[in-house]
Amino acid sequence: SDKAYTREQILQMEKLILNTLKFSLTLPTPYTFLVRYHKAVKATKQVEHLSNFFLELALPEYSMIKYPAPLLSAGAVYA
């Protein structure tokens, strides 16, 4: 780039464009990955319920915040 715009100006314009187009940027939650893993392993209802339970046990624990969402979900499915 030719340094025509500052970083702040670029970020401000990106924000304006996203808001104008009504884009919603979010992070995927562990539940998003859990649903994908259930489909991948063709999980039974029993496995789905049990892995949901395991994941819900992990979410309020502060010590689990260091693990990324896909890892938490994979651990819940394969526990």
Brief summary of the model shown:
Helix content is 62%, strand content 0%. The protein is mostly helical.
Q: What topology emerges from the helices and strands here?
A:
Blueprint: H1 7-20, H2 30-41, H3 45-58, H4 69-77
Could you characterize the architecture of this molecule?
It is a single chain. By secondary structure, this protein is mainly α. Helices cover 62% and strands 0% of the residues. The protein contains four helices and no strands. The protein has helices at 7-20, 30-41, 45-58, 69-77. The termini are far apart.
Report the helical percentage: 55-70%
Number of H/I helices: 4
| Mean pLDDT over the residues | 92
Strand fraction band? under 5%
Radius of gyration from CA coordinates? 19 Å
List keywords for this structure.
79 residues, 4 helices, 0% strand
